[in-house]
Amino acid sequence: MTDPFDDLTKALKSATPAPDTAARDAHLRAADAAFEKNLAPHQEPAPQARPISDRAGWTARTRDGVRTMLTTLTSRGGLAASTALVAVGIVFLTPVGDRLPLPGRAPAPVEPMPIMAEPAVPPAPIMEEMDSEAGDRFRAAPTTLAEEAPLGRTAPVALGSAPQAGLQSADGAVQAIPLPAPIPEPVVRPEADTEAFANAEVNPVKVTAETPVSTFSVDVDTASYAVVRSSLIGGQLPPKDAVRVEEMINYFPYAYPAPDGDMPFTANVSVFETPWNADTRLMRVALQGELPAIADRPALNLVFLIDTSGSMQAPNKLELLKQSLRLMLPELRPDDQIAMVTYAGSAGVALEPTPASDRTAILGALDGLTAGGSTAGQAGLEAAYRLAEDMHDEGEVGRILLATDGDFNVGLSDVDALKDYIADKRDSGTYLSVLGFGRGNLDDATMQALAQNGNGQAAYIDSLSEARKALVDQLTGALFPIAEDVKIQVEFNPAAVAEYRLIGYETRALKREDFNNDRVDAGEIGAGHAVTALYEVTPVGSPAILNDPLRYAATNTDDVSDEEMALLRLRWKAPGADDSTLFEQPVANAVGTPDSEAQFAAAIAGFGQLLRGSDYLGDWGWGDAAALASAARGEDSFGYRAEAVTLIRLAESLAAQ
Amino acid sequence: MFMESSEEALVLAAADGDRAAFVALAARVYDRLFALAFRLTGARAEAEDLTQDVLVALPRKLAGFRAEARFSTWLYRVAVNAAHDRRRRDVTRARANAGWGEVEVARRAEAAEDRTRQDWLAGAMAALPEELRDTVALLTDGEMTQAEAAEVLGVSPGTVAWRISEVKKRLADLARQEETL
User: Of A655, A607, A653, which Cα lies nearest the Cα of A630?
Assistant: First the structure.
């Protein structure tokens, strides 16, 4: 059998006609004329490091100037000041707040559709891009803009400004052509096709009498929420498989009580009425990791493994990474060490292990990073692990931070080998976290798999504020594991609970017997991390029971007390330990009043399920989710929750199309 | 006088304002450019328009060419981007899209065997999403490596490898569908 790809290219080759000589002559004459018009009086050479450049307009220049400033400023204050300048320069005509991207007509997240039509104002102008490279720059704009407030940020402004900026920067290299209405709906061309997301079927409702035990691994990844946000801001509902409900819930900080005993984390269980179903209950399992005093933390050895392939050459990728690292640097201590390995074509060490106190050397190496060439992931990874092992001293924590925008170039068949390699290195004490940049080429599935196998965190970074969240705020959490292979097992009492389902954690399910098997890997909890899991449980006798009782099975539970609803079991290992510790806690069969933390988690769980198209929510919809989340915002000092409310409203308008 | 000069030398001279070098360069790349344009669009008229777009924009863009990429790689990237721009414009104008987008492809082949082949090609290309079609178009001549195609398309080589396997998968699906019909 022949290769179908070869057949196709052969057929295509033989079908390609020779050019028409008359057309050829006419085109060459036209080119000649264009040359005379454009280049004969030697024009200013394009200063940009991009293959194509026809920059025009003051915005492009302004933004570049600002970017140069950003690369030279290092302090947080300086960064805030300069990003404020960006805001002044670019955020205009933005009625702050809910004026989000025009539903359905907004640019696609990956390739911004050049149509910006205000439906109320016909005839609408069409902004026509003359040059895709210009599109690249605009794509970058949201990033530069979302830096808007790395410190006291106000989410709606950051959200609202991005699409508006795309429109505005269009005036430089873009022509406006009047066109009669009506505007056809643009077909959004999903370059996103090359994105691969990891997910599994939504967890079904389980009958307690048949399967009383539910087992899963904790998950502290947050990548899914950022992908969801980036899609929504781009004017599209996210692909269903991109929605991992537990990662959305765990994106947010929660005010859970800190541990004080011997356990490295606390476990709290609370039960309250389900917002979307008055006849069921939500059982929330909340784990809060201890935050060791910063002063006693072990020295950190960080190896940044940086993808510098050509596609990273974008302000929302390599440039954003550089800025993120600049933000992180002041948070490190003098005895921490940093090294950098780049991979593109061939892997190379960009920075030998350097004490964090040597800021000049580190910043110099950062500025020297340029993108170009193709990706050679495995060689880079090996070099990074070698460096990490060289840097290792007794009692220090080693971690590789892989920053990439796409799949790791090891060939798809090698992913398993790569996972094994990472898992092997994990056991030797070096962890791996993955930072994803950019959209369109992002291989979420591989990212997640690598981070899971490396006992690390996968975060998707689309703005400087997200970088701050992933790297700076949670520096300690993401980088210092306090408990490894944390597994949660819940045994429900059939006398109290007729049915239950775990919301999210589909990709984290474990077999019941894996709970006690210390050889089975599970997620880790870092210092200060919180992990939240929600079960929807249907009490015995509730009208919400979906499954009829079996006629022939012995389901006599009369002898069992219904005082307890469930038994929570946790297993974890101290970092580096081989044997796990067991913790058990019964859950009383009583319904309480949810605090704002529980309500907010429930709202986000509902939001995630709406995005996945769940069958379990009945009439409960976007508006209910937004109202619940809004009411449960709490202190929200960083605006994360306010942003979530805006996203829910945005999703509502997109879903209404 | 330019017969022996390398393309890169012509580019540098043209970027420096040498008109004769530019004309020689344009003439030299024309046939390859047209062939790529045809494979990207699937119709002669579209291909001719696209070729002209690229050539007319070329003088302006030459200043941005940097010698670290091969000129042909760079040029193909310009062409692919121009093709994307055209598709976008076509969508906005709701213009009938003659080409791979429609199964009606010019069928000028005389021999019946050739015609079947053309039909299969048109059907197969129409069944592929645009980014897969672009990848096929770039790899048709066999002159370009997957890594170069990746550079042209602005994606990682792994993505190109994935796309190739995806094309194979879809072609196999297509073949199965035809068998069951």
Answer: A607
Look at A374 and B156 and tell me if their CB atoms are within 8 Å.
yes
- Closest by Cα among A494, A581, A573 to A537: A494
pLDDT in tens, B99-144: 565 433 333 434 455 556 677 788 788 888 888 888 999 888 877 8
Output the CA angle A472-A475-A477, nearest 5 degrees: 135
Distance CA A287, CA A266 (A): 5
Nearest Cβ partner for B63 among A9, A34, A53: A53
Q: The tokens 């692919």 sit on which residue? A: B80
Among A115, A132, A412, the residue with its CB nearest the CB of B81 is A132
Q: How far apart are CA A445 and CA A595, in angstroms?
A: 34
CA distance linking residue A456 with residue A219, whole number of Å: 10
Q: Do the chains contact at A31 and B22, CB–CB below 8 Å?
A: yes
Smallest CA–CA distance from B23 into chain A, residue: A32
- Show Cβ contacts of residue A610 under 8 Å, excluding neighbours closer than 6 positions: A617, A621, A622, A625, A651, A655
CA B161 to chain centre: 18
CB contact under 8 A, B64 and A53: yes
Measured between CB atoms, does B123 come within 8 Å of chain A?
no
The DSSP line for A182-235 is PPPPPPP--GGGG-B----PPPPPEETTT--EEEEE-----HHHHHHHHHHHTT
Cβ distance A186 to B140 less than 8 Å, yes or no, reads no
> Count of H helices and E strands in chain A?
18, 18
pLDDT tens, position by position, A389-433: 888 887 777 888 888 876 555 443 466 777 778 777 777 778 888
Q: How many CB pairs under 8 A join A and B?
A: 221
